[in-house]
Amino acid sequence: MYQGFIIKWYHVFTNAFFLIRRGIYTILANEAKNLSGSVMDFGCGNKPYEALFVHVDKYIGLDIEESGNSGLKKADVYYDGKNIPFSDNYFDNIFCSEVFEHVFNLEEIIPEMNRVLKPGGKMLITCPFTWPEHEVPYDYARYTSYGIKHLLEKNGFTVERQYKSGHMFEVIMQQFIFYIFCLIPKQKLVYYILHQLLILPGIVFTLIINKLLFGKLIRKELYHNNVIIVTKNN
């Protein structure tokens, strides 16, 4: 039963989160290769996307000890949830994926991220817009594309690029698939069989509709994730 973040085509047969994970992975795979030097993975968890950063010299995972996935972390450094334990202008880049929704004091943390980033350094950030509560009780917020842009700009960053992964139809289908996933047993063989019968058809149907709708009827008011690339102002 594969539910990982690195998505290949064949994971359609095992990953109930294929649609949402594929969308974010495709964007990150393209953007991560543009970053070099030192990178801090803020809220790194088990560093699921580290392999995408092929041009970096140093990749440091930072996390907080108490969170919703405490047993799955590969952090190099832990912090207290307020102060990032690195000097000013330390990192060339910062990567932060699916973390902002778990940070209750984000208004305090973004200035800290700015502080440890070199002038002109970049941050590559993702955060969900449409997804059920998770890692409870450490799930505090959802951000619109406008909200996250405003929050970053008022804390000393300039937006370079901004994406919305997924679209309205895909989100509706992924939520329905997630509902089915929650209902079926998670024993490996039973899950695999039921995945082929109940989940795979929904994923394939959505992928076909994606091809038919692309550029025509796609609506982006409802989407899966924000992905945003910002640069620290000098």
TrEMBL record:
Positions of transmembrane segments: 189-210
Keywords in alphabetical order: Membrane, Methyltransferase, Transferase, Transmembrane, Transmembrane helix
Gene3D superfamilies hit by this protein: Vaccinia Virus protein VP39
A Pfam family per the record: Methyltransf_11
GO-annotated molecular function: methyltransferase activity
EC top class, as a word: transferase
Biological processes annotated in GO: methylation
EC identifiers of the protein: 2.1.1.-
Methyltransferase type domain ranges (all copies): 41-125
CDD domains (alphabetical): AdoMet_MTases (cd02440)
SUPFAM superfamilies the record matches: S-adenosyl-L-methionine-dependent methyltransferases
Name by which UniProt lists this protein: Class I SAM-dependent methyltransferase
Gene source species: Terrimonas rubra
